[in-house]
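Re: beginner question about structure tokens

> Can someone show what the tokenized structure looks like for a real chain? I only ever see the sequence side.

Sure, here's an example I had lying around. Input first:
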Amino acid sequence: MAYADQEMSGNKVTAFVIVALIHVVVGYALVTGLAYEGLRQVVKKVTTVDIKKEEPKKEEPPPPPKQQAAPPPIVAPPPKINVSVAPPPVQTVVTPPPVAPVVPVLAPPAPVAPPPPRVQPKQATPKGNPGNWATTNDYPTRALREEREGTTSFRVTVGPDGRVTSCEITGSSGSDDLDAATCSNVTRRARFNPATDGDGNPTTGSYSNRVRWVIPKD
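And the corresponding structure tokens:
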């Protein structure tokens, strides 16, 4: 049985029950002497009940899904504009002073070499035997008594005339009296051929030698 048939049967049963009740009420009203008009009005109201067929409820469509609001677009902030722009730096161009002209430096003239000597210069040379300048007879008495010996080195300056003008001890014998006797005897006895210059003229020269003082053996 369909849903509509079940609903109509239920309505009819209800109507039959109501009609039965009305008959009971009417019988009771007649018995009790109620006014017919009153019963008629009641019956009219009851019998004019309009039984409406209930329509099936329409299923409501499901609500549409909620649309998610789209996120707002990302808006980049506008770039900052630096209004106070610094002026470009001012470059000062320094003009270099003009280059001074190069003055050539003249080299000094080379020294003029002296002319070669006409004669080869010569050193002073002794005349005779230098061994005779100081002999055993010239041995200082005290040094002989104390038996002191030694060798004295000397250098003499010879003048243009060939004579000794000065004497210098360059190596001591260890005894002052032996050194003094050396210079004294050489200055007194030595004679030289004087030194000559490039022209062959006599000039001052020098001479070096030594005297060995040895005690004579008997």
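Each token stands for a local structural state, so reading them left to right follows the chain. The first helix runs from residue 3 to 32.
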